[in-house]
TrEMBL record:
<dbReference type="InterPro" id="IPR001278">
    <property type="entry name" value="Arg-tRNA-ligase"/>
</dbReference>
<keyword id="KW-0030">Aminoacyl-tRNA synthetase</keyword>
<dbReference type="InterPro" id="IPR005148">
    <property type="entry name" value="Arg-tRNA-synth_N"/>
</dbReference>
<feature type="domain" description="Arginyl tRNA synthetase N-terminal">
    <location>
        <begin position="6"/>
        <end position="89"/>
    </location>
</feature>
<comment type="subunit">
    <text>Monomer.</text>
</comment>
<dbReference type="InterPro" id="IPR001412">
    <property type="entry name" value="aa-tRNA-synth_I_CS"/>
</dbReference>
<keyword id="KW-0436">Ligase</keyword>
<dbReference type="GO" id="GO:0004814">
    <property type="term" value="F:arginine-tRNA ligase activity"/>
</dbReference>
<dbReference type="InterPro" id="IPR036695">
    <property type="entry name" value="Arg-tRNA-synth_N_sf"/>
</dbReference>
<keyword id="KW-0547">Nucleotide-binding</keyword>
<dbReference type="InterPro" id="IPR008909">
    <property type="entry name" value="DALR_anticod-bd"/>
</dbReference>
<keyword id="KW-0067">ATP-binding</keyword>
<dbReference type="Pfam" id="PF05746">
    <property type="entry name" value="DALR_1"/>
</dbReference>
<dbReference type="Pfam" id="PF00750">
    <property type="entry name" value="tRNA-synt_1d"/>
</dbReference>
<feature type="short sequence motif" description="'HIGH' region">
    <location>
        <begin position="125"/>
        <end position="135"/>
    </location>
</feature>
<dbReference type="InterPro" id="IPR014729">
    <property type="entry name" value="Rossmann-like_a/b/a_fold"/>
</dbReference>
<dbReference type="InterPro" id="IPR035684">
    <property type="entry name" value="ArgRS_core"/>
</dbReference>
Amino acid sequence: MQQLEQDLKTALQTAARAVFGVEIPLASLALQPTRKEFAGSFTLVTFPLTKALGQGPEPIGRALGEWLQAHEPRVSGFNVVKGFLNLEIADAEWLKLFAQLQAQPAGAPVPTGGPQRVVVEYSSPNTNKPLHLGHLRNNFLGYSVAEILKATGATVTKANLVNDRGIHICKSMIAYQRFGQGETPASAGLKGDHLAGKYYVLFEKHYREEIRQLEAEGVTNEVAKKQAPLMAEAQQMLQAWEAGDEAVMALWHQMNGWVYEGFTETYATIGVDFDKFYYESGTYLLGKERVEEGLQKGVFFTKENGSVWVDLQAEGLDEKLLLRADGTSVYITQDLGTAELKYQDFGYDSSIYVIADEQNYHMQVLQATLAKLGKPYAAAIHHLSYGMVDLPSGKMKSREGTVVDADELVRDVVAAAKAATLEKGKTEGLSDAELEELYHLLGLGALKYYLLKVDPKKRMLFNPEESVALEGHTGPFIQYSYARIAAIRRKAAELGIAEAADFAALGALAPTERELVQELARYPAVVADAARNLSPAVVAQYAYDLAKAYNRFYAEVSIFQETDELKRSLRVALSARVGEQLKVTLGLLGIQVPERM
RNA sequence: GGUUGUGUAGCUCAAUUGGAUAGAGCAUCUGACUACGAAUCAGAAGGUUUAAGGUUCGACUCCUUACACGACCA
């Protein structure tokens, strides 16, 4: 379709030259899709040409339209509404376009001139508690962005930086030591990450109680928070961990091992994957080397107490602490180290961090600090900043226990999909295993689509009922369209109708057929847009538009009742192609597609 | 207090990056299964795009100010 647009622009340029004797640069001939309520497929806005051509917008539109209709075979008609020239494209041209599409598989790479070696870091969980709804948005976004970039032909590495050390981990460990009584995931009947989470919660509960007691004894809240025995123990444990204390390390390995088992299971269930795992326990020391490097280069400075800082005021930021006075690292220290390590490992020209927007400032600091260090990869860093997920009851707060657990949510959406599927009763002939797979695929399709259809950078509201909805602007709507097409293809195969033929001999197309070709041809532009903006929402919207267009087509023309053999064949071919395209497009969102549902 | 993001139909979201009468879904109402799958399709209704100015042929989009909500930095 890009080619068709280019040709039209060139033709318009020629028309302007012929009619007005004026050379119009191609760049100022912006074509846009014609709005549905008008006849035509492409629209030229003529307002911007009035100065150059010395005429009003409407005469310009008419003059250019008439010239095109007379001289350009691709243009079969036109109409002018105010400053808009709507061009109708000859059906032969649509058929040619469809033939060009057919010549390549639906999932063929879409070169965009974007980055070629990309690292997408996402998920990056803490190992002290299970994943929740917010992590799901992160995981789905990261996975999808990686797939979208792959679709542009880039080599993409999915990385997961596991936050496996620090005070929060020690909290779970202390609580386990004190209250655990040797419990294991097996003995407790809990996934490992949930078991760790249980002790994290226990820590917080008893810690609060200790603070309350201290306060009752007249200690201020601030002091009580530090003096509480549990917190003191956790701090001690962190030091012991850094010192490599054997018993502490053993417990740490044991508990993290449980958590990883739990995460692995969840990742498999929600269908995300990683090419590379980084662990902060393995990278946090590398950051200190970067700090040393900065001091040597004179771009960092030391304060009187020995703490190390970088001054980013010239960049519009503040002074930022990089290393505490006692030599222990802060968050950004390890980020400096990990960025370097990733670059060594993959030599990226784009490094994407899928991180919530509460870290916007932090990410600016990271990038500016790496730039100060003169790192060539500083400019390649992109923060895919996404908004938090709110609940109808308000914000999610782990401390107040108002988080939506990821595993539980997945169970809920699968159960809802099952209930709906049973109610429809269309799955005769599927085995129990196939049915389970179907419920899973539909439930996750609903959930993923629900979380991905919203512009990532916007905060979004999670409505439990809408997240499992199967009708309207949802994943299952699109999956249903695919299943319908699958049924069509099965029947066409039975009847021996070919999915491809030479359709050039066909005369006029039905409007819905034309619309389908146009939608199909949009795919490369959609991928390019989504890749440039790191936005799966663009892809989600396209999948919906395509499915919607197909359902319109399906309702308005008959396929197997059609007596004209070539027309019938075209409709089967269109259906097949739309099916393939839907599968590929949903695949970019991490959503699978059923043959029947 | 400083920095920053968001504000669109009753609700949840779009709007081709400055273009036409601001579009979808849900919810409400109406019509379409003796036809290839009704998890569908067609239609109705629903808007002072938070407010006020400004820029121009043209503003949800850009600029200024105010208001509301959120995040971050102390």
